[in-house]
Write a structure and sequence with these properties.
The protein is built from 9 helices and 10 strands. By secondary structure, the protein is an alpha+beta fold. Strand 5 and strand 6 form a beta hairpin. Helix 2 runs antiparallel to helix 3. The radius of gyration is 19 Å and the shape is globular.
């Protein structure tokens, strides 16, 4: 299986889109299974000639010639999410920043989040365009088409309250209190929670907890790659204590930190962290 991850070339697009990857698996390659872990991105995946069975624990993608074009949107999972690929698979997956996808869609994000298996088709020409890109063979041309298309749909997003709260929770996850942020912005905790539900698909507390987990994972990626055998973990002051850190890691990954860093496929400066089975 081949996986190529890219950051947007266009600086404007990079303000909203963290990155995207191309996944290609051939028919004669063995079945691939992996776990991916909670994050604060809006994740859009497009596939063709594939059948997907999906729920809130995972997704099983299997080659099915002639199957309808598929586009899925996932914004919220609290536990490891298991993915399985069988047969020939062609997939492109986009990782939008926490509020990034809102800058391209005219309806609130919650409109598309009715259930895990609902199809994400935000524009009339979306299916046709993405299917054409999927069928392409020149990677550089595919990248150019992707970025040109998303830029053509950019309409912007203005919500100072949630933008400021997300920024503070991102930059200062260990100290930012939802109650204090509500007081600072002269609103209620309930209103902030409602805005998160509409535009992010999770609660502020879930966002903060996941942000803290992801920051700790990123800080330890370089260390773990250099010292794979020992599974060393640098304690992060954003957690109350070591036991708190271990509890969160077990909740989000199913593993203690030491076992996690020994096992997971870690990529520095990338969005993807998978545990292959």
């Amino acid at each position: 299986m081949q996986l190529q991850y890219f950051k947007p070339k266009n600086k404007l697009l990079a303000q909203y889109l963290e990155g995207y990857y191309f996944l290609e698996k051939e028919r004669d390659e063995p079945t691939v299974e992996y776990f991916t872990f909670p994050n604060n991105f809006s994740i859009v995946s497009v596939l063709n000639d594939t059948h997907i069975a999906m729920d809130n624990t995972g997704a099983f993608a299997k080659e099915k010639k002639g199957a309808p074009f598929l586009s899925t949107l996932i914004c919220h999972y609290k536990k490891p999410f298991k993915v399985r690929y069988e047969g020939k698979i062609r997939e492109i997956t986009f990782y939008f920043k926490p509020l990034g996808l809102n800058a391209f869609i005219s309806k609130p994000l919650e409109y598309y989040l009715e259930n895990y298996s609902s199809s994400f088709a935000p524009f009339e020409d979306y299916d046709m365009t993405m299917k054409s890109i999927l069928n392409g063979s020149n990677r550089e041309e595919q990248r150019n088409q992707i970025e040109k298309y998303w830029l053509s749909k950019l309409i912007g997003f203005e919500n100072p309250l949630i933008q400021d709260v997300v920024l503070e929770l991102t930059e200062n996850a260990e100290q930012a209190s939802i109650e204090q942020l509500a007081a600072k912005h002269h609103t209620s905790r309930q209103n902030i929670a409602r805005q998160f539900h509409i535009h992010i698909g999770k609660t502020p507390s879930e966002f903060r907890k996941i942000q803290r987990f992801r920051e700790t994972m990123a800080k330890n990626t370089k260390l773990a790659n250099k010292d794979k055998g020992k599974g060393t973990l640098s304690y992060d002051s954003s957690f109350y204590d070591q036991s708190h850190l271990i509890k969160d890691f077990k909740a989000f990954t199913g593993l203690a930190p030491k076992a996690f860093f020994k096992s997971v496929s870690l990529q520095e400066n990338a969005t993807i962290n998978w545990l292959f089975l």
